[in-house]
Amino acid sequence: MSDRPEHAPGLPSPGQPGFFDKITPRFEVAARLASLPRPIVFTNGVFDVLHRGHATYLAQARALGGSLVVALNTDASARRLGKGPDRPLNHEADRAAVVAALESVSLVTFFDENTPLQLIGEIRPDLLVKGGDYDMESLLETALVKSYGGRALAIAFVNGFSTTALVSKIKAG
Predict the structure, then answer these.
(1) Residue 55 lies in a domain
(2) Are 49 and 163 in contact (CB under 8 A)?
(3) pLDDT digits over 97-110, tens only?
(4) Structure letter (DSSP) for residue 77
(5) N or C: which end of the chain has fewer CB within 10 A?
(6) How far apart are CA 165 and CA 63, in angstroms?
């Protein structure tokens, strides 16, 4: 287990599964990156209610490199996305645990800003990946990654799966 401070979000406690060690406070990300196989693939999102579309997307992203770093919006950052007053449904530490449990994910961290631009600058991934619903060329993140020789690409969107649709279905009964 880790000797990280107890107050950091999502930290493992004695007896928790090993995947909790993938959850890394932002101040430790740089040190942890040194031990990850390259190329490093980066993606980000809320990943509120993990579903088949998320799992497929993350597995496809990991297949593009040696490691997959997933940056989760903090709860405050997620609320600013305008997905609704009751979102995210799951607290950031819980969302991080579920994402970290996936075999395809190498490291999970958080960002509190509206976009992960600053974090991407700190990590400098080899590849930035987003879902197919993004216009990659319009993202500032793409310009940043390309500025130091990295690549950016969109993975085809998995139709029929969304947390927003699941929430609506549950509310409808």
Answers:
(1) yes
(2) yes
(3) 999 999 999 999 99
(4) H
(5) C
(6) 27
Q: Containing H/E element for 170?
A: helix 163-172
Say which CATH number the domain at 150 has: 3.40.50.620
Question: Percentage of residues in the chain with pLDDT exceeding 70?
Answer: 84
Q: What is the pLDDT of residues 112-127, one digit of tens each?
A: 999 999 999 999 999 9
Number of domains in the chain: 1
Residues 111, 91: Cα–Cα separation, whole Å:
14
Q: How far apart are CA 133 and CA 39, in angstroms?
A: 24
Q: For 82-93, give the DSSP string.
A: TS-TT--SS-HH
List of residues 6+ apart from 97 with CB closer than 8 A: 10, 19, 20, 23
Query: Quick check: 95 pLDDT over 50?
Result: yes
Alpha helices in 64-139 (DSSP H): 75-79, 92-100, 117-123
Distance from C-alpha of 102 to C-alpha of 98, rounded to nearest angstrom: 7
Q: Residue 1 falls within a domain, yes or no?
A: no
Instruction: Give DSSP secondary structure letters for 29-66.
Output: HHHHHTTSPSSEEEEEE---S--HHHHHHHHHHHTTSS
Domain range holding 165? 38-172
Is residue 89 assigned to a domain? yes
Strand 151-155's sheet: what is its strand order? Answer: 107-111, 67-73, 40-45, 127-131, 151-155
